[in-house]
Task: inverse folding
């Protein structure tokens, strides 16, 4: 897949799925702007992406996606540096799990602020730039946004909201040439799943027809496809990349 001449923003790009997406975009020829909260990790991520795709332009920006002013500043800096934006991948996300009987307002607010409002903030701050290039947006939701999950009221609500926003923006922006799609990863081997107890991991693996976790690169392949011109008539879609978990 070819992303030559495209400038792609990847939020939460300093590690995990976001870093894999940044790498795959760069390998496909795109210039990449890595946005992440963790200023300490951004430089290493930029170096890693450059090493994978020598000659491709990569820059990092410290940004909190839940803070509109921070997002607007990063959007401005990205446009000034790269001159345009052809793709936005809303990937940054966190978990703060608890059952309904135990979930605090702080847990609810944190996940909604980052996983739901953060996607709105990044989309609104970049929509003019995407309209200018007839670009593409890919929003990382989750299978939890389709089916809910034990202990994840906040996360499920946010990820379902991401799917609803994706379809809404498809309707609003489609006629102007911007495509919006969502990817729902299943159970992917990253930092976010590291605290899941071994018996629960075992139980989840038993529900996956492929009987294994996904790798970040396997999510990244789907995202690069949706960003590319190969997906020129795919719009408003929800693509599960979950090894069949939802069956
Ligand atoms: P991760 O924790 O490895 O990476 C998340 C990244 O987001 C980190 O680099 C972190 O610094 C960044 N981030 C967190 N808060 C931020 C903020 N306020 N502003 C900017 N950046 C911020 O997680 P991951 O597993 O790579 O998850 C990436 C996305 O995939 C998330 O949206 C997650 O919900 C989704 N997802 C993951 C899985 C999985 O099994 N790993 C499954 C379904 C969906």
Result:
């Amino acid at each position: 897949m070819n992303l030559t001449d495209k400038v792609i923003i990847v939020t939460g790009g300093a590690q995990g799925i976001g870093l894999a997406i940044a790498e795959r975009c760069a390998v496909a020829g795109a210039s990449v702007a890595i946005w992440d909260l963790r200023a300490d990790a951004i430089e290493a991520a930029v170096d890693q992406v450059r090493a994978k795709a020598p000659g491709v332009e990569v820059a990092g920006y410290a940004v909190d996606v839940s803070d509109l002013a921070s997002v607007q500043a990063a959007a401005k800096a990205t446009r000034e540096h790269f001159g345009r934006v052809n793709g936005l991948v809303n990937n940054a996300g966190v978990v703060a799990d608890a059952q309904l009987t135990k979930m605090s307002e702080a847990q609810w607010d944190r996940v909604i602020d980052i996983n739901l409002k953060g996607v709105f903030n990044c989309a609104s701050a970049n929509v003019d730039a995407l309209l200018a290039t007839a670009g593409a947006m890919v929003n990382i939701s989750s299978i939890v946004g389709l089916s809910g999950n034990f202990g994840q009221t906040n996360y499920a609500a946010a990820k379902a909201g991401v799917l609803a926003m994706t379809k809404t923006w498809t309707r609003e922006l489609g006629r102007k040439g911007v495509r919006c799609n969502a990817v729902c990863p299943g159970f992917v081997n990253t930092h976010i799943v590291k605290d899941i107890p071994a018996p629960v991991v075992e139980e989840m693996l038993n529900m996956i027809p492929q009987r294994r976790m996904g790798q970040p690169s396997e999510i990244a392949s789907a995202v690069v496809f949706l960003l590319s011109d190969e997906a020129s008539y795919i719009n408003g879609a929800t693509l599960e990349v979950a090894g069949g978990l939802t069956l």
User: Anything to note?
Assistant: The CA atoms of residues 100 and 143 lie 19 Å apart.
